[in-house]
Amino acid sequence: MARRDSRRLDEDDVRNRPTRYGSRARTKQRPAHSDAETGMVVTVDRGRFTVLLDGPSGSEDTVLLTAMRARELGRTAIVVGDRVGVVGDRTGGPDTLARIVRVEPRETVLRRTADDNDPYERVIVANADQLLIVAALADPPPVYGLIDRCVVAALTAGLEPILLLTKADLASPEDVLAHYGPLDVPAIVTQRGADLAPVRAVLDGHVTVFVGHSGVGKSTLVNALVPGAARSTGAVSGVGKGRHTSTSVFALALPEPAHGWVIDTPGVRSFGLAHVSADDVLWAFPDLEDGAARCPGSCEHLTAEDGCRLDAWVAEGHSTPARLEAFRRLLVSRKDLGGAIALP
C-alpha cells in the first residue's frame, strides 16, 4: 500500500477526538431571561415546584403551574413563599413543565435544624411576616418549652409571633396568657364553634406560617379559614406521573374579601434551633441589649453568678424582672427538648 504523504492529508483523514462539550463554544454569560414571569412558590415536592403566577395588574386571572429548577441555578434552595422568575411553558396545562430561572431576594426566612446537634440550617419558608403558634389549653395541655422554641424561631427570623390558644371551653387561658405577657406576644383565645373573625382579622394582609403541636386543632383551623383546603392541597401536590404525592409545607390563599396567605407546615417533624445564638435571642429584647454590652464576651446571660450584668441592669430600672426572666427562659428553651417538635 502506498504510504500517505502527510502533506497531502485532507479533512477526511484527520480524526477529531470527541470531547464532552463538542464544538460548542463555552461562555460564562448567563441568559438574562427578560421574558420570565414572576410568581410565588406554593408547594415543593420531589424536585417539582408548584408556582402561582402573578396575574396582570388589576386582574384576578392567575395560572397555577408545575416547574423544575433550571440547571443554571445549581443547587439553589427554593422553598414555599419564594418569589421566582419562570420561563418555558407557562400555560399550566396537563403534563406541562416550566423552568424556574431566578429566585428573587427574600425579605424573611424561617429556618430550622433537624435537631440541636445539627449545624445544617434548613430554610423552610420565605417571605412570611407572621408565625401563628397554635396551642391547646387542654387535651393536650400546653407545652411551654415547645411554644418558647417557636417564639425564638419567629423573633430571630424577623417574624411577628402570635399565640392562638384553642379549646378554651376545656380550660382557662389565664395561666398561659400570664406566662407570655412579659414577651408582649399577641394572643387570641378560641374554642370549637367560636367565631373566627378575630383570627381572620389578624391574618388579613399578611403571609402567616401556622405551626402547632399534634392534636391542638391546627388542621381544623386551616380548613375552617380556607374552605376546601384539603382538596386544594391534594390538587397542587399531585405532580409527577399521575401519582398523588404529599407535601410538607404548602401555601393557601385566604378567600375574599381577605387578602393574605396561610402557610401550613404539616410535614415538619422537628424544629431544632442549633443555628440560634444567645445574641440572636437578645436582638428581640432591645430593653436588655445595652445592659448585655456590660457582660463579659463569653457571657451566656443566664445567671449573675456567672458574671452576667443583666440583673444589675434591671435593678437600675432599664427593664423589668419579668422581661429578664422571659429572656432567660427562651435561652434555656432553645437548648431543651432535643430540638423535636412533633407536628401533625
Write a structural description.
22% of the residues lie in helices and 22% in strands. The chain has 344 residues and is an alpha/beta fold. The chain folds into three domains: 67 residues, Nucleic acid-binding proteins (OB fold (Dihydrolipoamide Acetyltransferase, E2P), Beta Barrel); 144 residues, 3-Layer(aba) Sandwich (Rossmann fold), CATH 3.40.50.300; 62 residues, Ribonucleotide Reductase Protein R1, domain 1 (Orthogonal Bundle), CATH 1.10.40. α1 packs across α9. The protein is globular.
Brief overview:
The protein has nine helices and 13 strands.
The average pLDDT is: 84
Say which CATH homologous superfamily of the largest domain is assigned. P-loop containing nucleotide triphosphate hydrolases
In the predicted model, the low-confidence regions spanning at least 5 consecutive residues are 237-246, 337-344
CATH fold-level topology of the largest domain: Rossmann fold
Q: Which sheet architecture does the biggest sheet show? A: 6 strands, mixed
Task: Note the run of SSEs as H and E.
Answer: EEEEEEEEHEHEHEHHEEHHHH
Number of strands: 13
Q: Give the tally of structural domains.
A: 3
The CATH class label of the largest domain is: Alpha Beta
CATH architecture of the largest domain: 3-Layer(aba) Sandwich
Question: What is the end-to-end distance?
Answer: 82 Å
Spatial strand order of the main sheet: 10-9-8-11-13-12
Helix content: 10-25%
* Rg, Å, rounded: 26 Å
Tally of helical runs:
9
